[in-house]
Amino acid sequence: EHLAKYRRAGVRMVDFDGGEPTLNPELVPLVRYARALGYERINVTTNGRLCAYDDFAKKLATSGLTTLLFSVHGPDAQTHAQQVGVAEAFDQTIDGIKNCLRHAPDTLELGMNVTLTKGNYKKLGGITQLCFDLGLRWFNIQFLTPFGRATRWVNPDTREAAEVTMRVIDEWSDRIRFQVIN
Predict the structure, then answer these.
(1) What is the 3-state secondary structure (H, E, C) of 104-124?
(2) For the chain, what is the total number of helices (H) and then of strands (E)?
(3) Average pLDDT of span 8-26
(4) Whole-angstrom Cα distance, residue 67 to residue 4?
(5) What DSSP string runs through 39-96?
(6) CA 155-70-161 angle, 5° bins
């Protein structure tokens, strides 16, 4: 209902994210419906863990998406797990990325997404290397939107995180397209 309403109003892009969109059993049908309605850009931002199942990865990658972003919060299993709270998440996400890359049509742009925290911003170079090594050429670096407890407990010093981010972009900008958010 919302997809049809907003498309009639002229909206051309829809983004499925927030929480974990792949946990919605209607995600793939919703993507297909958005495509049928004429949305020009359809994005999913996911932790990619369900994409470790090859059948699901194929369904998602071939559903009509134009962009698929994987949230990766560390260059290794330990750092990623510290950020997301699940020990096996890193391996599942990496397997999911590989599966989606294998099934992705040429029309699907795949990338990586990271939210910078006190626990991972100093490892941004390693996360960027992982992005490149996996074959992804688009990287969103998101500064935390500080509110509530996140400001004090999770948010890194913005100036320090910005300096790290600028160094990484300077080093990699000839090989990866960056988007900085917030």
Answers:
(1) CCCCCEEEEEEEECCCCHHHH
(2) 8, 6
(3) 95
(4) 20
(5) -SEEEEEE--GGGGSHHHHHHHHTSS-SEEEEE---SSHHHHHHHHS-TTHHHHHHHH
(6) 25
pLDDT in tens, 86-111: 999 999 999 999 999 999 999 999 99
Residue 147: predicted pLDDT: 66
Closest C-alpha to 73, from 54, 56, 94: 94
Question: Of 24, 27, 102, 21, which Cα lies nearest the Cα of 58?
Answer: 102
Measure the CA–CA gap between 110 and 68, rounded to whole angstroms: 5
What does the block give as tokens for 132? 């490149």
pLDDT at 148: 64
Quote the CA–CA distance of 42 and 47 in Å, as a whole number: 17
Q: Which residues touch 72 (CB under 8 Å, ≥6 apart)? A: 80, 90, 93, 94, 97, 112, 113, 114, 127, 130, 131
Burial (Cβ within 10 Å: 0-12, 13-18, ≥19) of residue 68: buried
